[in-house]
Amino acid sequence: MSDSKIDTSHPIEDKSARASKIERERFWLVENAEAIAEANAYIEKHVCLLRNTGNSDGVGSLQV
Questions:
Q1: How far is CA 64 from CA 31, 44, 47, 50, 54, in A?
Q2: Which of UniProt's keywords are assigned here (predicted)?
């Protein structure tokens, strides 16, 4: 038998890194929730207007 040892630290480090990444992403979403909501509302309002004023080919056109 060989004296080689199995390194079990890598799976633990990988799991810890994934957990840390998930936590950072969650924190970022919480911190930026208001800006994300505002951006989504802007897109919803303006992009939907473009879609609704489009030609028969489905491409929107600006109406002033």
A1: 36, 19, 15, 12, 13
A2: Toxin-antitoxin system
